[in-house]
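Model: You mentioned two targets. I'll fold them one after the other.
Researcher: Yes, keep them separate.
Model: Target one:
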Amino acid sequence: MASALANDGVSINYDVVGKGSSSVILLHGWGGSAAYWRPLISHLDLTGLQVISLTYRGHGDSDKPAAGYRLDQFAKDVVAVADAAGAKRFVLVGYSMSGKFAQYVAAAYPERTVGLVLVAPVPASDFPIPADVGKAWCDSQSSREVAFQTIVAPFVKIPIPKERTEAFLDDFQKATRVALEQTLVMCSVSFVDKTRQLHVPTLVLAGIHDPLLTPDLLRDTILSQIVGARMIKLPCNHEIPQEMPDHAAALLEAFLCGISVAPAG
């Protein structure tokens, strides 16, 4: 585990596997950490790759400040990690809420981003989480069983091994309340004017059983905004990296084969 200092002095933890010249940055979902990606990473051929997975501020073992839970700051945190890891150009893989964050990073740092893989992503448009739902999700942190029933079980179609679920619940316990609340608020911020200007290869992975971010919704809100974006539908729910990590890894590798992610020059 390594760490990078953000521009405001906050320490952001990250993991790196592989020593290749092509960099891929993995962004975890709500309440998670870099560890969320381990099942998918285990299925990757790391030849030529440097795979970086970071843990957001307020989550896991990263610093837990009271402030900085904004799209612009999260983008700066991602770039701070990329700089620390020596990743001049990268493909961003964003899951769920981080699908939105990945789009923001790509819009803010187009010279650094060479590809987007958006997994069951929150769109760049306004996507508010109802107050009562958000409160119930955050309140579930007080009980592992309630958390499982509230924020895991409704979003799984293909059974996930118990150890993976337990690992996520461990991470969920580490997240601060302000981080959980404010990242949900960030989902309601719209920057579609910026995504309409994106010209970067983009792949969207959608679960056909996802009740929150359906393929139709993603087609209307993401594929209609990002020029040339393509979507692949998978026979699972929202937790694609956990339900189908082998398939998601294979699709990521196929995507990487089609673009150049090596540093310029």
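Model: Target two:
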Amino acid sequence: MIPYYVVDAFASRPFEGNPAGVCVLDEWIDDGLMQQIAAENRLSETAFAVRREAGSYMLRWFTPTNEIDLCGHATFGIAFVLFRFYEPNAHMLHFYAPYKGYDLACKRMGDRIQMEFPRIPPQSFPFQQAMAYAVGAMPDEVLATERDLVLVFDDEAIVNHMRPNMSKIAQLEHGLSVYVTAPSQTWSYVARAFWPKIGIPEDPVCGSMQSALVPYWSERLGQRELVCRQTSTRGGTVWCEDTGSAVLISGTGSLYLRGHIL
């Protein structure tokens, strides 16, 4: 049996934020089986962790269709579970994600968990009309990282009420995911994340996108500390900080399910 949990990450209560599947393993199981479990769970990501030593774990993430290199909300989910059930006296957890060799850290901060993620500033990227057709609105700025496409708008209402065409997003040449974002009168900025290329139409609250968005908004707004509201149907709040060398991402969570995979 595999201990299994579902944590609503970046949520102030159940049924908010982004549900992450969490599997705590004694040793690695077959890659194909991990993929089948993630597909059966049908959550944006399921995290699998194996303990290396006290406070240190190997970490991998799977979407319903494939393994992914970096995931914020499922890292939050695994840290939430480990702090609560496996490492109750720990204040810091370290993770090594072998897919791309990321070293990640999670710190307990009262009722929040803070994650240290890589800083991946997006660069200017050529506009293509297909981008506007895909999301249903004309971006004011187009940026990209090696992995993701970032569309910036000046009006948060456009982001909040956007109804993108997922099949057209899946056909875009660049971007494993598409992030849309805009400045906000209530928060530092709002954002949404679409991943139809890997079986996730909209990720309710995406942590890993902050690796790209925080450097951009920190420079544009002249602020190191930022608050992002992801305006998906479920919604969630993420507190962020740009240290110059890393991105700090924090939030609260709620345990939804605890059981075993047979």
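Researcher: Noted. Anything on target two?
Model: The first strand starts at residue 2 and ends at 9.
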